[in-house]
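Could you help me review a protein record that somebody else here produced? Do not assume that whoever made the record got everything right. The record follows directly below this note.
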Amino acid sequence: MILCFGVLLLLALASIGRDGRTLPIYGVVCALAAGTVSTGFLWFCSAIVILAVTVGMWRWLQQFAPHRPGGAAVWPVVGAMFLLLALGLSGASVGLDATLATGVVLAGVCGAVSGPVLVQFSGFIRSVIGLSVLACVLHSWVFLLVATVLSGVFVVFGLVLLPRLAWRRVEEDAG
């Protein structure tokens, strides 16, 4: 469990400031991490949601221009590491697995605070996938339902808003 969550946290920190090219790998590692703390039908449903959202959004985001991270991606990583340290020091009473899963969600949120729209959207997707892992840790169907609905909301936002924002960026570059 600790190895899976450690790899997941390293992947989450490494993907801050980057676009959605690593979403399928992130989804597989999230599904494996969720499988280390939960079994049965809850894990199966969570793995289906995780893999469907990450692979689907990866396929959708491929049509947009890739983002190359610059020096601005350093501060969200530093902020995420600080939040993970604070969470580790204060969250010892809720259990190690819940603390690590919450850290995955926080790393996704930190990835969504800066950068171009595509990078922010990828950070939000990673955060929502972290909520699905947290649902497996807490063994909560309600949490999984909320994470699934939130994934649906972001899918709709991605389908409606990202093409318009990409078109606007092309117009700004030409003008």
The CA atoms of residues 31 and 85 lie 24 Å apart. Residues 141-174 form the longest helix (34 residues). The chain has seven helices and no strands.
